[in-house]
């Protein structure tokens, strides 16, 4: 009896942590998309057109997926946990690609300038923006942005993928009203 109660409490805590981390990552992606769009609107010569479109749409899709997954997980829906796992794994993958691009000193050869004159603090903030942070790391060879983008994905992926979170969502009580239609 005590073991079962402890497992349910741990599952509840990990689910709450996953929901909070996903909400934070969703807001971070949204803020980073706004930063990129404002910088492009202010001076479109500073940023590449297609890269700006890709990054802004990617950040918005990621923000929506993380927010939707967080809401579903808060409702103890297993689908929300999987949405968070897939989205966070994609963000983690982008961060790792940023780290690899920095490691091998990747240069696309297109002469893309992307927040090149930014400070380390700005790189950290953009890195925590998910998709924009990973692109900043790839284009500018910024270790700080790459590590930040990787940390953001891991921050969401870890609690969502834990077995206690899965047990918490699978132990969802039946609705007293009836089946969901």
How would you describe what is shown here?
This protein is mostly helical and 181 residues long. It has one domain (2-170). It contains 7 helices and no strands. It has helices spanning 2-42, 49-74, 78-103, 120-127, 131-140, 143-161, 163-170. The longest helix is centred in the N-terminal third of the chain and has 41 residues, at 2-42. It starts with a helix and ends in an 11-residue tail after the last helix. The mean pLDDT is 82. Keywords: Membrane, Transmembrane, Transmembrane helix. The chain crosses the membrane at residues 12-39, 51-73, 82-104, 143-162.
Structure characteristics:
181 residues; 0% strand; mainly alpha; elongated; single chain; 7 helices; 76% helix
SSE arrangement:
Layout: H1 2-42, H2 49-74, H3 78-103, H4 120-127, H5 131-140, H6 143-161, H7 163-170
Helix pairs in contact: 1-2, 1-6, 1-7, 2-3, 3-5, 3-6, 4-5, 4-6, 5-6
The major beta sheet can be summarized as: none
Determine the number of helices (DSSP H or I, runs of at least 4 residues).
Answer: 7
Mean residue pLDDT:
82
Q: What integer value in Å does the Rg equal?
A: 19 Å
Strand content: under 5%
What is the general shape?
Answer: elongated
**In total, how many domains does the architecture comprise?**
1
Distance between the termini: 34 Å
Look at the helices and sheets and give the structural class: mainly alpha
Helix and strand element order: HHHHHHH
Helix content class = over 70%
Tell how many strands the DSSP assignment holds.
0
**pLDDT under 50 segments (min length 5)?**
none
Transmembrane segments: 12-39, 51-73, 82-104, 143-162
Keywords: Membrane, Transmembrane, Transmembrane helix
């Amino acid at each position: 009896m005590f073991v079962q109660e402890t497992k349910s409490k741990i599952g509840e805590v990990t689910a709450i942590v996953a929901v909070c981390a996903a909400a934070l990552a969703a807001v971070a992606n949204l803020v980073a998309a706004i930063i990129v769009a404002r910088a492009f609107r202010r001076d479109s010569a500073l940023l590449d057109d297609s890269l700006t479109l890709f990054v802004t749409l990617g950040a918005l899709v990621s923000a929506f997926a993380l927010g939707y997954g967080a809401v579903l997980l808060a409702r103890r829906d297993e689908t929300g946990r999987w949405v968070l796992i897939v989205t966070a794994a994609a963000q983690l993958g982008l961060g790792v690609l940023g780290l690899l691009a920095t490691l091998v000193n990747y240069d696309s050869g297109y002469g893309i300038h992307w927040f090149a004159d930014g400070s380390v603090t700005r790189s950290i903030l953009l890195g925590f923006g998910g998709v924009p942070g990973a692109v900043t790391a790839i284009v500018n060879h910024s270790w700080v942005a790459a590590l930040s983008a990787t940390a953001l994905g891991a921050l969401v992926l870890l609690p969502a993928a834990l077995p206690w979170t899965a047990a918490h969502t699978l132990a969802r009580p039946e609705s007293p009203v009836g089946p969901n239609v």
